[in-house]
Write a structure and sequence with these properties.
The protein has 315 residues and is of the alpha/beta class. The chain has one domain: Rossmann fold. The chain is built from seven helices and eleven strands. The protein starts with a helix and ends in a 12-residue tail after the last helix.
């Protein structure tokens, strides 16, 4: 039995889509530690709602964990890395941050605000500053879906979306910002970086462009240095949110010494258990934690040259 099969059987994860790395090996993530943070100061998505999660205990509130927590924990078991799942913003203090190799956000709103939809302790203003400094100094960051609906820039909900003040420092780190979304529907994800980890795997066919049923975000405030991995193709999509040229939907970028990966996918429970989503997520996670290398030179102006063309809010 090779190491990959042993990891599958010992973790009880025979149905989970593992990423074979070399000669049947799992990803080289041993001794890496990830913080999965899911506070919802704004809308709380079902996938991170503890009251809708399982009764498997030990993490979260009242002994419950969410659907997304369970998926991330299963991936951690399969790939031999450690994960801490929490909604408690007090973890972002100076003493706690150094233990983590990367931070994975599935969050909404101003995480420093006292009140939240899920009634959890906030991150302090200093905690936000320390987080951004930690990433700039070399920690990894992974964001899924509503991570771009977090710490919005001034004037986000008013005026013309084409003319905005300077983005919030968090948005500058992430590389893009949520505008709005329409009805859930199928959309085409065009692969624009066929060699990025997860898109390309040893001894396997690379991921080709694909359709997925999801709640798709319309995004703005793209960093100029994005390395676009997946572009959203809007032709044929229903709703005014998507009446615009193709734009980045999954990307990587360097934030000073830190590695940042974001994907707009992740709203639906069936997306979280989709082997293709898990494969792409694990590629980004492994790269952000420094376990694999990739060319992340800027390509947005080449693969999505009109991404910054937006309609006004009133259109």
């Amino acid at each position: 039995m090779n190491r990959r099969d042993w990891l599958l059987s010992s973790a009880g994860l025979t149905g989970l889509a593992l990423w074979p790395w070399q000669q049947g090996e799992a990803l080289p993530l041993a001794k890496k530690k990830l913080l999965f943070y899911t506070r919802s100061q704004g809308f709380q998505h079902d996938v991170v709602n503890l009251q809708l999660g399982g009764e498997k205990g030990r993490l979260g509130v009242k002994g419950k964990i969410s659907h997304a927590d369970q998926v991330v924990m299963d991936l951690a078991k399969a790939h031999a890395f450690e994960v801490v799942c929490t909604k408690d913003g007090r973890i972002f203090n100076h003493d706690d941050l150094p233990q983590f190799d990367a931070f994975f956000f599935y969050t909404t709103g101003d995480l420093t605000a006292e009140k939240s939809t899920d009634a959890t302790p906030p991150m302090s203003v200093q905690g936000k500053k320390l987080l951004l400094e930690a990433i700039a100094q070399g920690k990894g960051f992974i964001g899924s879906h509503c991570a771009s609906d977090t710490f919005h820039s001034p004037g986000h909900q008013s005026g013309d979306y084409r003319h905005q003040p300077e983005p919030d420092p968090y948005i500058q780190m992430l590389g893009g910002e949520f505008i709005s979304h329409g009805a859930q529907q199928k959309a085409r994800m065009r692969v624009t970086s066929p060699d990025f980890p997860g898109i390309k795997l040893p001894d396997q066919e690379p991921v080709d462009s694909f359709d997925m049923h999801e709640e798709w975000y319309s995004l703005k405030n793209f960093a100029p240095d994005l390395h676009v991995i997946l572009a959203q193709e809007n032709e044929g999509m229903k709703g005014k949110d998507y009446q615009r040229p193709s734009f980045p939907a999954t990307w990587a970028r360097l934030h000073h010494k830190g590695r940042v990966f974001y994907t707009s996918m992740g709203h639906r429970e069936d997306v979280w258990t989709n082997p293709l989503f898990q494969r792409i997520l694990m590629g980004g996670l492994a790269w952000a934690m420094g376990s694999v290398e990739a060319n992340v030179s800027p390509n947005m102006d080449k693969v999505t040259p009109q991404a910054r063309l937006l309609q006004a809010k009133s259109d």
